[in-house]
Amino acid sequence: MLIATWNVNSIRTRLDHVKSWLKAIKPDVLCIQETKVDNPLFPKNEFEDIGYEVRFFGQKAYNGVAIISKLPIDDVRTGFCGELKDDSETDIFEAQKRIISALINNIRIINVYVPNGSALGTEKYHYKLKWLKYLKRYIDLIENRGEPICLLGDFNIALESKDIHSPERLTGGIMASELERSELKGIINNRLQDVFRLFEQDTNHWSWWDYRSGAWDRDKGWRIDHIYLSEELVENTKSCLIDKNTRGLIKPSDHAPVLVDINWPPLEEESSEIEFLEY
DNA sequence: ATGTCGAAATCGTTTCGA
Question: Does residue A105 form part of some domain?
Fold first, then answer.
């Protein structure tokens, strides 16, 4: 089962790139962020015409997330209120459309667009930290239900020095501060794995290159788009890759897709002992 | 060089967010 995440930076502007990529790679599920379109204007038919179902949670101009899937999409939940119905304070966060989840192949797929946070100490930065605290509670509830978890999206956080092109200059700043990292590590908390790091330990693997400063041409990137899996999925994961080809297209998104290939549902073990006994 | 995008309103140029 091939699952992917891609911050497309406007689905309407990137429609041709996304459709071409789906046709070429044929993932089972693609989770997208920054769709930047209100629900009635989402180009749903464009995906249905090529064999994909879509569920979206969008708004005009900013944010917006969607799940595009060849497999049936069940039990869709949007916003924090989709899980944390008991808490009136979650209303503060519902104005920004940043989280959608669904059950696909009995995996709870949670697609997030974590706030950027602007700059340390700003109102947006505090909003980001608080948003992450709500995400932790959200994941806690799902963990308690026992569903296999695939948490993926644009986290706007580089976890380690090797996830940034110039750690000596960027560490401590926005997307690389101690507080952001500790909130994200708290969510992961021995129950989820950043699967890209199961296969690759080196630096210089980026998922985002700023449009400014010729970042792509100079390969000055960050790895801020992640896929986190719970243990039963990790055990069956075959590979995890970043497809940076898309970043070199004309009018690209500033982010590249990240993909994971999971043997799911896992094949039954050959019960050789029983077969042996039958003979 | 905070050097570029995408979207919307303040509309044919400026603003905001990233």
Answer: yes
